[in-house]
Amino acid sequence: RFDNSPAKRDQIGDSLDRSSKVVLVGSPLLPYIRGFTSKTDHCTVVGNGYNAYPDLTASTQIPRQRQFRVVAVSNYEESKGFEILIDALASLELELRAKFEAVLVGGGAGFDSVGQRVSDRGLADCVHYTGPLLHRDAIAEMLAGDIFCLPSWREAFGIMYAEAMSLGKLARPEAVGPVL
Hints:
The chain has helices spanning 6-18, 29-34, 82-91, 94-97, 111-120, 135-144, 159-166, 173-176, and strands spanning 22-24, 43-45, 68-73, 100-105, 127-131, 147-148.
């Protein structure tokens, strides 16, 4: 970590105190900034932007096998919540679970543990992996889904959420209609 010593923390605090404006990518960063300085009236939250692809078509890389597709896109970190998504799918009643599939897009060593969890929960037939993809291809996978779900708990401003919303992939009940 870059703030792992008192001297570094003092340098960061001094820089923040002397700055006339500090731009944060999400409001959850304000409490973090307060760990270095009490001066936060000069902090402004400006969300990250993202690339849109007006000519994008939905991916067909993984043929749809079930009525509803949940897509998660991220490089693996424990805080991204892939395990939470897998556990949520596993908790569905069998009749409902049979209607869902998930596509996990991304890479990283932690995907091994996600794969093991999928196997342990008996979901190997409905969870698919693409591995790491180019940005455009990852967005095409998202477009091919019905629901975007990344239960991350440490995002200041998750760009993938904004990209999912721009594609109409809002996680709301009416997005998939009645399921039973």
